[in-house]
């Protein structure tokens, strides 16, 4: 266990086992077990009455947006409820009746709490009052809202430069909160706005912007009804976006085919029993995947190159496999791409990706004769050194087929947090956008800073090197989500002040700067009132549609503030009324914030939406096939290199993934039902032959180490599970394995940590 400095704090918590039980991996997703498990979680945290009240409002037109993932709601929500098992767990976690109050903190010191598991920490309940951890103290104590704002303002004023402060955001905040926060950070004078998306879809944003001119996907939900082929790559929707399975089901019912590309055969992609349809629950369900390509970790580029090479050969023969009209009209770099593809030998590509050639040929045949193709992807593509190129290679395939800007076709990066896309749209970013700065200056009368800020990995480094001293987080669990847990812990502990605006207790509240504040905020599902008037927020889903979210449940405490109010409170204390922006009135009246968003951010000025209170799509140039902002005014083909991993004989590639019972660092429970793993998170999935070859057997205990730049990092106590995973590959859960991810190894251009391809060794205990 790693302990650090002064306060005797554990950065990672206990390493003990919790009592594993194994079953066969499941061969279908959802169905009755999903309904049962969902309700168990809801009843346990909220009680029966509150559960049904809350669930009847989730993802409904006049209700609140699910606090889980960003998958869009259909135009007509299901009468049986428009939510999934994991959405119910997300809600139960937020709307729990348990409370973390001053008695809790006087009973448990941060030193003690840091030795609890993330599961135990999360289960303690909702944060209900502002708390302070004073220097040299190990117990949080209550503090008033005003005193906490004043303290933050004072620490910010003490800094030699605004760039010594870091302002992190996680993707659950509303558009209104995020806009105000970004505005304050710029008014304060820095662009140090690392965001959870730096660890998530940043690679998608970079790749899509460079090739297609917008960092977002192009498909709408309806496109799944028409798609002829949907490719799901590096994504586990059965667990992380369960409502996506309904879209895949519909695609199948309409005659479409689903291809999954994944080192694991995820249950959610095999067969689906739709819990929102009576027939779905009772029948044997819909088979989803037609062809599964079991690619080796991070060998998607060789696989895609092989597919493109085979398609090119067919096109040469037949002339109509690629969409030559589309290529000529809309793209740049076709000849170079064809030339590049020629240098690779099929045998080499087959060997690298590890997939049977017959299966690849089946996929090629399907792609050759269809052009309504959607490619969906998530972390399996983004969190690698070549994350950006993984996505560019997908874009190459879509461009060759002309599969953009028409119904049933396009790009579909499946987002994580429920408003991560919206937060970015309204200005949370470390990059400088000259257009946005100009617009802010014209609207608010101050000049935003024009130097690039720090992203997540560079913010960690700056804090570690004591170049940044104040850390403020609007949501999230920075320590456990970020790479290199022990290094990041030290980085946070080097700060003079760390502040977390949060709903639930997590490890970042325990591994803190000299002084720390917890500022408790209202959750999505909770009623947000001011002077007896109910307020609502807006969010943007994974497909660029903005809509309202209105909480309805009684807040867990009277002493919570909304996120905009907290941001306004800090801004007010800092500027003391001496600033062009009316922080107080803005933070209390979200209508005023929305008016400003409409002026500052393109696409929000939607009259129809305003009059009817309905959702609206933001502009998307790919849907209109408008590439005028790109070089030559064309969409760009890209030449991507093969990923390189020079493994020594005893080295493996490890991907760190989510179990079925967690939302990022929030651990709902200890089961990974679809993978057949129960009551344990300290496991490593290993190929059957590898297990034998290394003289191991099921449930042996191993330690894992990674070695980068002559530094050994260690994760101890993991149980071996022989599993259907390619040779040389391993899988384990995050955040437990984040200790192995070096902070300074990340994707080119996007700086997303290499959480899906860590080179490790294992050591039998
Ligand atoms: N219930 C629940 N929902 C969630 C979340 C959650 O934790 N719990 N998290 C939310 C967030 S923030 C996000 S970003 C998304 C994450 O959603 P996902 O990206 O689906 O989440 P991961 O568990 O990281 O799964 C990655 C998948 O990629 C595969 N994979 C790994 N490496 C490779 C590779 O090199 N190539 C290919 N082809 N596949 C690979 C893994 O086997 C796994 O199936 O989900 C969101 N929704
Ligand atoms: N090794 C490894 N590391 C990873 C990943 C991986 O696949 N592998 N995935 C990465 C990805 S994709 C992501 S997105 C990041 C996630 O990084 P984060 O977003 O930082 O982490 P979360 O676990 O989602 O944050 C949970 C905390 O958010 C707070 N919270 C919840 N709801 C609200 C709200 O409405 N308002 C406020 N203010 N706070 C709220 C609660 O206090 C809760 O404890 O992790 C990344 N880390
Ligand atoms: Mo994410």
Key descriptive features of the protein:
six-stranded mixed beta barrel, 765 residues, alpha/beta, binds ligand MGD
How far apart are the first and last residues' alpha carbons, in Å? Answer: 16 Å
Helix-residue proportion: 25-40%
Task: Give the number of DSSP strands.
Answer: 35
Q: How would you characterize the largest beta sheet? A: 6 strands, mixed
> Which small molecules are bound?
ligand MGD, molybdenum atom
Our Rg estimate from Cα atoms comes to: 25 Å
Query: Residue-averaged pLDDT, rounded?
Result: 93
Low-confidence sequence ranges = none
Chain oligomer state = single chain
What best-fitting shape do the alpha-carbon axes yield?
A: globular
> Helix count?
30
Beta strand %:
15-25%
SS-derived structural category: alpha/beta
| Order of strands in the sheet with most strands | 8-7-20-19-18-9
What features would you describe in this structure?
By secondary structure, the chain is α/β, with parallel strands linked by helices. The strands form eleven sheets. It has a six-stranded mixed beta sheet, sandwiched between helices. Strands 27-34-31-33-32-35 form a six-stranded mixed β-barrel. Strands 14-11-10-16-17 form a five-stranded parallel beta sheet, sandwiched between helices. α9 packs across α20 (387-400). The protein starts with a strand and ends with a strand. One ligand MGD is lined by residues 170, 172-173, 196, 199-200, 379, 383, 416-417, 474-478, 481, 501-504, 506, 521, 523-524, 563, 656, 664-666, 734, 738, 741, 755.
């Amino acid at each position: 266990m790693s302990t650090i400095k002064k306060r005797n704090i554990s950065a990672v918590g206990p390493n003990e086992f919790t009592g594993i039980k194994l079953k066969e991996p499941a061969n279908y997703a959802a169905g009755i077990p999903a309904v049962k498990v969902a309700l168990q979680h809801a009843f346990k945290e909220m009680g029966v009455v509150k559960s049904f009240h809350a669930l009847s409002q989730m993802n409904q037109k006049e209700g609140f947006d699910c606090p889980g993932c960003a998958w869009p709601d259909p135009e007509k929500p299901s009468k049986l409820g428009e939510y999934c098992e994991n959405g119910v767990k997300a809600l139960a976690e937020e709307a729990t009746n348990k409370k973390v109050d001053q008695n809790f903190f006087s009973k448990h010191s941060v030193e003690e709490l840091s030795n609890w598991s993330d599961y135990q920490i999360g289960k303690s309940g909702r944060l209900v009052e502002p708390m302070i951890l004073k220097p040299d103290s190990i117990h949080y104590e209550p503090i008033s809202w005003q005193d906490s704002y004043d303290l933050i303002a004072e620490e910010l004023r003490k800094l030699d430069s605004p760039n010594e402060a870091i302002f992190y955001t996680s993707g659950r905040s509303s558009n209104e909160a995020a806009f105000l926060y970004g505005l304050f950070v710029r008014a304060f004078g820095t662009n140090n706005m690392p965001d959870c998306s730096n660890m998530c879809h940043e690679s998608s944003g970079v790749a899509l912007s460079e090739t297609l001119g917008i960092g977002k996907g192009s498909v709408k939900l309806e496109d799944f009804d028409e798609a002829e082929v949907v490719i799901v790559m590096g994504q586990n929707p059965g667990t992380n976006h369960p409502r996506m399975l309904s879209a895949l089901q519909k695609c199948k019912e309409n005659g479409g085919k689903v291809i999954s590309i994944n080192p694991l055969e995820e249950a959610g992609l095999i067969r689906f029993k739709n819990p929102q349809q009576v027939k779905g629950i009772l029948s044997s369900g819909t088979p989803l995947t037609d062809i599964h390509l079991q690619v080796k970790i991070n060998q998607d580029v060789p696989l895609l190159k092989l597919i493109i090479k085979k398609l090119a050969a067919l096109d040469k023969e037949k002339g109509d496999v690629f969409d030559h009209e589309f290529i000529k009209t809309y793209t740049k770099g076709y000849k170079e791409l064809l030339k590049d593809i020629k240098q690779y030998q099929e045998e080499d590509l087959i060997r690298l990706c590890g997939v049977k050639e017959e299966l690849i040929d089946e996929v090629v045949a399907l792609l050759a004769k269809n052009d309504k193709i959607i490619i969906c992807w998530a972390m399996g593509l983004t969190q690698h050194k070549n994350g950006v190129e993984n996505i560019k290679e997908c874009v190459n395939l879509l461009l060759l087929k002309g599969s953009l800007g028409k119904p049933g076709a396009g790009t579909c990066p499946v987002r994580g947090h429920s408003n991560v896309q919206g937060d970015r749209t309204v200005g949370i970013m470390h990059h400088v956008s000259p257009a946005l700065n100009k617009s802010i200056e014209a609207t608010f009368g101050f000049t935003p800073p024009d130097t690039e800020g720090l992203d997540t990995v560079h913010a960690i480094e700056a804090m570690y090197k004591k170049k940044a001293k104040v850390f403020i987080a609007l949501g999230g669990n920075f320590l456990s989500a970020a790479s290199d847990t022990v290094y990041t812990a030290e980085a946070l502990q080097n700060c003079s002040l760390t502040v977390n605006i949060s709903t639930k207790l997590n490890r970042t509240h325990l591994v803190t700067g000299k002084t720390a504040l917890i500022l408790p905020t209202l959750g999505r599902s909770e009623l947000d009132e001011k002077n007896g008037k109910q307020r609502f927020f807006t969010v943007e889903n994974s497909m660029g549609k903005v809509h309202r979210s209105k909480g309805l449940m009684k807040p867990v405490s009277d002493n919570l503030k909304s996120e905009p109010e907290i941001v306004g409170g800090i801004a007010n204390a800092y500027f003391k009324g001496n600033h062009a922006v009316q922080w107080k009135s803005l933070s209390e009246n979200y209508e005023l914030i929305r008016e400003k968003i409409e002026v500052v951010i393109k696409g929000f000025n939607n009259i129809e939406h305003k009059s009817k209170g309905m959702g609206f799509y933001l502009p998307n140039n790919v849907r209109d096939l408008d590439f005028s902002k790109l070089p030559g005014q064309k969409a760009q083909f890209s030449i991507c290199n093969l990923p390189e991993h020079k493994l020594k004989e005893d080295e493996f590639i490890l991907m760190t993934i989510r179990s079925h019972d967690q939302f990022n660092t929030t651990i709902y429970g200890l089961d990974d039902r679809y993978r057949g793993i129960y009551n344990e998170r300290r496991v490593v999935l290993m190929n059957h032959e590898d297990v034998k070859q290394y003289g191991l057997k099921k449930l042996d205990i191993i330690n894992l180490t990674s070695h980068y730049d002559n530094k050994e990092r260690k994760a101890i106590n993991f149980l071996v599970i022989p599993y259907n995973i390619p040779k040389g590959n391993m899988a384990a859960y995050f955040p437990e394995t984040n200790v192995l991810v070096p902070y300074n190894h990340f994707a080119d251009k996007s700086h997303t940590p290499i959480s899906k391809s860590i080179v490790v060794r294992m050591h039998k205990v």
